[in-house]
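Running this now, will post back.
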Amino acid sequence: MFKHARTTFLVMFAAVSTLRAQGERIAFDFTGVSPALNLPWTKTSVMESGLTTQGWTAGAGITPATGDNRLAFSVSSDANLSTLAQARANSAFLSVRVASSSQTLNLNSNRVAFTIRRENWHSPLQYAVFTSVDNFTSPVFATPLLDNSNTATDDFSFLIPATGYGNLSGSVEFRIYPFSARYTGHAASLTAFSIRSPVQTYTLNLTATAGGSASTAPSGSTFEAGQVVQVTATPAAGYTFSGWTGDATGETNPLSVTMNSDLSVVANFLPKPAPRMDLGGNLDALTDWTTAWVFKDCFKLARTWMTRSASGSEWESNQTPLTDANGWPLAVPFTPAGGSPQILHTLLPLYGPGIYTVRLQGVGRVDLIPPNGGARQTVTAAGGTTVRTFTFSPTLADNMLYLEVRESSGSNPVRNIEIIAPGQDTKLAAEPFHLDFIASLAPYRCLRFMDWMQTNLLPWENVTPLSDWAQRTTAATCTQTRREGVAHEYVIALANQTHKDPWICIPHAADDNYVRETARLYRDALDPDLELYVEYSNETWNGGFMQTTYIQDRGKELGLDPDRWQAGQKFVARRSAEIFAIFGQEFGTANRHRVVNVLATQAAGAGGVTQTRIDAMANPAINASGTQPDALAIAPYFGVNYEPGDAVPTAAQVVTTLSQAAIAEATAWTKEHRQLADERGWRLVCYEGGQHFVGIAGAENNATLTGILHAANRDARMQERYREYLVALESEGVDLFVNFSHVSGWSQWGSWGVIEHQQQPAADAPKWRALSDWALDLAARRDAVSVLPSAPGGTWSLRATLRPGRRYAVESSTDLAAWSTLAGLENIRGDGVTAELDVPVASEQRRFWRLRSHD
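Update: finished.
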């Protein structure tokens, strides 16, 4: 099947084998008092008969250091990392000569092993080995850049090339150049050095064509049989990695290859698409204080049932209500053991003034107390379906309807309560969402349901994490505000009705069966033309959430790393891959294009959280299935977190200089992640983003600060800042930006909503205007399509500039009435590049083709 309409560039590796003997030929022994102060050091523990050595010496740029049982030294530098060129110019090297007592020396395919111990934060971080065979022109080996915090010993080894080191006359000198050091006097030590006889080897001949390059770790071209070699593809500017083919396949980069046979491995690169960034929106959590008019039925936003004494006045007696499986009350009043008779009550938001339809089933009594001093209304239900209408007058300041279930028959209980908003009493089952809410989603291509699904748990909450499929909220559950989140069925219904890609977050404690049932539900019920974004939990790096503690606990339990933080990041990679694999199994190969595997990370942590998770995804010991993400997701917010004691800005400062500086910082984070994504052929998307000016750590209680931040978010200049922000993200290669958030009321905890309430005029919502304008501009960009003859009587070439994140089908017709999809071209995933698609030509005189978007 034609999967990608792309132009491919190749990098190839070839392997050749030879057979050698094994055994250590020479090994140096550094035990003793300060060997570096007693150069040349000639002591060995192994010396093959016929070999000789003049021992270890040091170049002028090496300062021998005190240190027993090791060859200790330091180099000179300044505040900047020293370079290899500087080390060579300064003669900063350790040197040893090896010779044969016979006339010639053969070192072809010998293995050199050495051990370095870094003894200080600023000790050299890299080491390069040169030999006299090529007059020290090119290194035969260079170590990777070590971490500053690594002050332990590091073992390195490499194979001497299979040719060029045989029948040598005289001695061979090895020089080790330490570099990437800072300052002066920070010691490191050589603790071991040996040369071993050759073994069976394979030679990797590495070449690269346009589009990228590839390298091996350890560096070199000859490797021992059974050795694991890490192969890394690096795209050139304007290209992205697209996967490995040949004897080693997959999308993991770097890729580990075991040298057990001759291999041919190809690294593929694709041109990066022209910048084109779609919009998405994070939907606010469903609560009784939600300011979005989500459902036509207001009762779906009711608070979960509370209890109180039937004759009392207390607000909450904290008794466990008697309900059916869907949460509807059974016998009311009910009397708990040792208690007084209890009734059930709740609160729910009304949307605006008008006539509301109240509908319920069963036998009982329900009382309603409207907002703004409305009189108590009683609905008496005698069985069957009871319908009443009431005129309510809610306002933004007071929109809560108080509802009591005072009586409910044990044999025919009150249930299926609906409170329908004015003008919305149609198609409740097929189209349950309020028409104004649906209309407000127009600018978005994707909807993220993280808050809808109550993904974040706070450490002080007394909540059991959702783990079992049976615990979930369903469409039949009486309210959708449960801590278990909104029913998946409503997520699917909203996505299908609006034709927008859903983005779901799998609960952090969900078991495999929960994941599998989720995958099956979306596979069968979601519009197949939509893409499903799948992410494990949310911000599992953020210590403010319970899920971060959970992933660190699990990482430690599984022994993924001795360090708790590292173990947590590695567990996220492991669990994400397991979830991706389950979705892959349930959707199958033919429907793999319907799922976007998302690895989310910290925007400010490219070298920390992100790199650790990426490395873990490439580690077979952690990611056993090898399943890889399709997208790397960040949240490059722009803003300032204000703490107590910080200077309080003016609104003008927030919306000008402070925002502009923060946007520049967010752009830099994005650029770093774009490089990481390109190296692996992943899309770069934003799971959240937007302004992030907020008080924290007590400053949220500063009313003056809160008022200024709210004023800045309403300032007309914020529209321009958002436009600049979106342009910057798109220019750095983001192809989907999911703003946080859509309709959401503001408070001291943040000014997140681009719309504060469902009826807010666009004139009062500058952030919303910026998003709407972006969506209109995006819609005006047209896909270029042309059809050109390729060969007489053969094929024609359909050339199309396909959009990222879109899927297309090529269809043909002879009469413009009946169209058929061409085999193999049913689901072409566009990537914003110009590509050629061969279109078969039949014998009929006239033939038409069209490129149909699945959107």
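Confidence is low (pLDDT under 50) at residues 1-21. More later if anyone needs it.
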